[in-house]
Design a protein that fits this description.
The chain is an alpha+beta fold. The protein has four helices and three strands; from the N terminus they run H-E-E-E-H-H-H. It has helices at 4-11, 43-56, 66-76, 87-98, and strands spanning 16-22, 25-33, 36-40. The longest helix is centred in the middle third of the chain and has 14 residues, at 43-56. The N and C termini lie far apart (48 Å).
Length: 100
């Protein structure tokens, strides 16, 4: 049995962002998958790394967070594909375009 981060990382089958510290004052940020843990310099860096890992290892988004990854994919990285876009994701992208 390792640290709590290592224990959670060993169970992660999709890229998972883990943070230690308190809300608004993160001590460390990690990306974990299948027991492998990478320290990231920031939460934004961890999100970028986790998103790119999905493509690198050709893994589907975890259904529990699919809408979040889809928003990043289509609204931030501007990567379109043939998957059905959640209505909430389409609405958020349209909203963000209006407030630019």
């Amino acid at each position: 049995m390792g640290s709590p981060v290592e224990d959670i990382a060993s169970m992660a089958t999709h890229p998972l962002i883990l943070c230690t510290g308190r809300r608004g004052n993160l001590a460390q940020v990690f990306v974990a998958i299948e027991g492998q843990v990478t320290i990231c310099p920031s939460l934004l860096s961890a999100m970028d790394r986790a998103f790119k890992l999905h493509y690198l290892i050709n893994i589907a988004y975890d259904t529990r967070a699919e809408h979040v990854w889809q928003l990043l994919q289509k609204g931030v990285y501007m990567i379109q594909d043939r998957t059905t876009t959640y209505a909430s994701v389409s609405e958020m992208i349209a909203f963000l375009k209006r407030v630019k």
